[in-house]
């Protein structure tokens, strides 16, 4: 019987092949196992507003699908850039997510020195939905309509105050756009979230506010706020009797609030796919639909590319609006 000699080169090649196969299998197993620990969902606003409410409802549904807790963390401040920057700097492994809103689109044109590049720092997961912002006042306000508000602002320039959930947010830009198109002058009062802004409006410390339908819906239903107009091109199904601001005498006025889920750039495609599927299923539950649709949110989940395409369109539109209207920050 002949003895077969195995060269050291052959042994080395076999070892390398086995090691590579083991690493590949381990990588596949790691991806297949995602998530193995809790996922953080960063909300760049204070607790109590519409974004916070929608994020918490979505997190509950996603947690059931992912079989891991999805923990909402509020990181308000600097027009959402504090929370967004935390996600931009996070490890791209799918365990740190961002609930982005309108500010995600306009911040690059309002803040020339952002700590991140919006186009390169994030990976789209899914759009969650759209909703109007609603111009609201207290029930005892002498302002009964958008026309009343405009006339008041013209009679007393700079004295009418409007709250927002932060500089550069949809509520802020809604006011800036109204000032520009209606040729009026109001005073912007920014807060660190919709909750604190809403509390001060209810408390009589500010005159009005552009709140998301999700944020102001409960107050409208309770009668503690009164709606003057919605910011979308068409009337909201949730507020069919409330006119649009455009039909109230401000032609071309349109602002669409939205909610989109993002991860840090570089997150593996298979992880993005897992998160996308979980978000879709969470948003499709009867519990989620009942709680958000009554407050104006139109659910519109889709592919990561669909979210990317929508954002590109909004960026082009708002870059033009901000530039032509000469909108500047305080």
From TrEMBL:
By sequence similarity, the record places it as follows: Belongs to the UPF0065 (bug) family.
Give the signal sequence positions: 1-32
* Gene3D superfamilies noted in UniProt: Bordetella uptake gene, domain 1 (3.40.190.150), Periplasmic binding protein-like II (3.40.190.10)
Q: Under what name is this protein listed? A: LacI family transcriptional regulator
Query: What keywords are annotated for this sequence in UniProt?
Result: Signal
Top-rank taxon, per record: Bacteria
Q: Which organism is it from?
A: Advenella kashmirensis (strain DSM 17095 / LMG 22695 / WT001) (Tetrathiobacter kashmirensis)
CDD domains according to UniProt:
PBP2_Bug27 (cd13578)
Recite the lineage of the species: Bacteria, Pseudomonadati, Pseudomonadota, Betaproteobacteria, Burkholderiales
Stored InterPro entries: BUG (IPR005064), Bug_dom1 (IPR042100)
């Amino acid at each position: 019987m002949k003895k077969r000699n195995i060269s050291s080169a052959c042994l080395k090649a076999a070892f390398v092949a086995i090691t590579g196969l083991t690493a590949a299998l381990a990588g596949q197993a790691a991806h297949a196992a995602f998530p193995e620990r809790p996922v953080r969902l960063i909300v760049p606003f204070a607790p109590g507003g519409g974004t916070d409410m929608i994020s918490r409802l979505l997190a509950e549904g996603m947690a059931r699908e992912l079989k891991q807790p999805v923990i909402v963390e509020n990181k308000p401040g600097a027009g959402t850039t504090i929370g967004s920057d935390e996600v931009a700097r996070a490890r791209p492994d799918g365990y740190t997510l961002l609930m982005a809103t309108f500010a995600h689109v306009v911040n690059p044109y309002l803040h020339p020195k952002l700590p991140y590049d919006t186009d390169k720092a994030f990976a789209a997961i899914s759009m969650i939905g759209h909703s109007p912002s609603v111009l609201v006042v207290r029930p005892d306000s002498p302002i009964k309509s958008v026309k009343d508000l405009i006339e008041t602002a013209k009679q007393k320039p700079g004295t009418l105050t409007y709250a927002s959930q932060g500089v550069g947010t949809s509520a802020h830009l809604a006011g800036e756009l109204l000032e520009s198109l209606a040729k009026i002058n109001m005073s912007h009062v920014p807060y660190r979230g919709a909750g604190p802004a809403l509390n001060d409006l209810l408390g009589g410390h500010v005159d009005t506010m552009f709140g998301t339908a999700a944020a102001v819906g409960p107050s409208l239903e309770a009668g503690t706020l009164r709606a003057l107009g919605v910011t979308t091109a068409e009337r909201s199904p949730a507020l069919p009797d409330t006119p649009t601001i455009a039909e109230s005498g401000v032609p071309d006025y349109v602002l669409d609030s939205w909610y989109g889920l993002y991860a840090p750039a570089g997150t593996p495609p298979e992880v993005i796919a897992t998160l996308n599927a979980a978000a879709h299923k969470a948003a499709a539950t009867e519990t989620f639909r009942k709680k958000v649709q009554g407050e104006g949110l139109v659910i519109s989940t889709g592919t990561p590319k669909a979210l990317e395409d929508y954002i590109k369109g909004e960026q082009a539109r708002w870059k033009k609006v901000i530039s032509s209207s000469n909108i500047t920050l305080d």
